[in-house]
Design brief:
Strand order of the largest sheet: 1-2
Pfam families: INTS15
Organism: Seriola lalandi dorsalis
Distance between the termini: 68 Å
Number of helices: 20
Order of helices and strands: HHHHHHHHHHHHHHHHHHHEEH
Shape: elongated
Structural class: mainly alpha
InterPro entries: INTS15
Protein name: Integrator complex subunit 15
Largest sheet: 2 strands, antiparallel
Helix content: 55-70%
Length: 469
């Protein structure tokens, strides 16, 4: 395609970009039809893309051409139509890669800027082929750039334009692959270490509703990707399970940092809204873990592939240790409230680890602890969970989930006074351990929110090992 450069130079910026997209489509179609494996776009073509679409200067002495805001909008519309009209997914993926695969050069900033605007427009106008290509891009690109794209979309649909969240939420059924990768990216972006890195309420509500509607959504990338071992360190995790677990575990303490003034009842402004959401999300994550044995066995990966990595667990425990120390120093929170929130955090971590181990998501030898100097977490929590008996939670295996309108009729809600005890995995009717007295339920859900029924699993389940403080 290098010979078309001279014909593009006299054109205005929009006309040249449109013409190059047309030739790029034809070039990639011929490349695919040639049967060359793997089909690869040559460097000359990539240089044309950088010069006439991304407007990177050919050399230092040549000023880069710029589009007006109107011309850029017209280019985005042309690109949306181009991907929509191309029926072959292979061609679309190669074209998307030629436009937006990062090359480690000066044009990458232009690539990221144009990519964010294109994906945002694709969400707004329902261009599924672009979202499918973006899902592949998120799977193959360094996580630093993945979270940058996620930040653009969150800003566009959860911050800048009031009432635009439903537009983003509706892509759940249109492109589940993109939704899965988007969840993974935002859980990587928002690690709850600061107020700025805490997910907006609208985003949290949307993700909870997505997973409640379809728990397998968070496994789509894993289910559709050939896996032989661990993913590259630089890429996003193969599932968002680790990030979602981090959200649930850290939330009780992270949302009580000194960023909101305490109200007269000792709670913060956003706690009543986020508390039930994180509780519902925690239950959903545990239910996803329960789906894994059959899936891993079908792939022949049970006991061979860990979806939760010990390295990320070590980071989580280190973060929890700092949060526990910060909670002890709060002056506007009573010691009883601080203890209850700390206990809830530790309980959620213990529950998640035991269910993850029981269902093959976490692989580690019993008694193994994280090699961190984290006192409370390392010695008390991880050793008690990893050394204790595996508990099978038979009362969380079926929907409806969390605050579904049918939750009152679910097995979870209908038997709140009969907690499940640990049983042998092959003989569920014969307990292998004596029954334990239930501890006092943690008051995690304000009674003023009847639309979010309390979870019996979270508030009434006997837990035989109690962390000490």
């Amino acid at each position: 395609m290098g010979d078309i450069r001279q014909s593009l130079l006299p054109r205005d910026v929009l006309s040249a970009a449109k013409e190059l997209l047309y030739h790029l489509d034809i070039y990639i179609c011929n490349l695919v039809q040639s049967g060359r494996q793997p089909p690869q776009v040559d460097s000359k073509t990539l240089e044309l893309v950088e010069e006439f679409i991304l407007h990177a200067p050919k050399d230092r002495n040549t000023p880069g051409r710029r589009m007006s805001a109107l011309q850029e909008l017209q280019l985005l519309e042309i690109m949306c139509s181009c991907f929509q009209e191309q029926s072959r997914d292979t061609v679309r993926q190669l074209m998307f890669s030629a436009l937006f695969s990062l090359q480690g050069n000066q044009a990458d900033e232009s690539r990221m800027g144009l990519l964010g605007k294109l994906v945002s427009m694709a969400i707004a106008v329902g261009r599924i082929p672009i979202l499918e290509c973006a899902a592949t891009w998120l799977q193959r690109t360094h996580r630093v750039y993945c979270v940058r794209l996620a930040q653009v979309l969150v800003d566009d649909y959860c911050s800048m334009v009031p009432g635009s969240v439903p537009t983003l939420q509706n892509i759940h059924s249109a492109s589940p692959r993109f939704c899965c990768q988007f969840i993974t990216a935002v859980t990587t972006l928002y690690d709850l270490t600061t107020e700025e890195l805490t997910p907006p309420l609208e985003l949290l509500q949307m993700i909870v509703s997505w997973i409640q509607d379809d728990p397998r959504l968070v496994l789509i990338t894993f289910l559709n990707t050939p896996l032989s071992g661990s993913q590259p360190i630089s890429s996003l995790d193969v599932t968002p399970l680790g990030g979602l677990m981090r959200w649930c575990v850290k939330a009780p303490l992270a949302y009580r940092r000194d960023k909101k003034p305490a109200l007269t009842n000792g709670s913060t402004e956003n706690e009543p809204e986020t508390g039930p959401l994180f509780s519902a999300l925690h239950l959903s994550v545990l239910q996803v873990f329960m789906l894994l044995p059959n899936i891993l066995n079908e792939k022949g990966l049970f006991g061979r592939l860990a979806l939760l990595q010990m390295e990320s667990l070590a980071t989580l425990t280190s973060d929890l240790s700092r949060l526990l120390d910060q909670a002890d120093k709060h002056t506007h929170t009573s010691s009883t409230d601080t203890h209850a929130l700390s206990q809830l955090t530790l309980d959620r971590l213990a529950q998640a680890l035991q269910v993850a181990m029981a269902n093959g998501a976490l692989l580690c030898s019993r008694g193994k602890s994280v090699d961190r100097e984290d006192g409370k977490i390392k010695v008390v929590l991880l050793q008690l969970v990893l050394s204790g008996p595996v508990m099978y939670y038979n009362n969380i295996h079926t929907p409806p989930l969390a605050f579904s309108p049918h939750a009152a009729h679910s097995p979870i809600a209908s038997h709140p006074t009969h907690p499940t005890h640990p049983t042998h995995p092959t003989h569920p009717t014969h307990p292998t351990h004596p029954a334990h007295t239930s501890h006092t339920p943690l008051a995690t859900h304000p009674s003023s929110h009847p639309q979010y029924p309390g979870q019996a699993f979270m508030t009434g389940m006997p837990f035989p090992f109690r962390p000490s403080h």
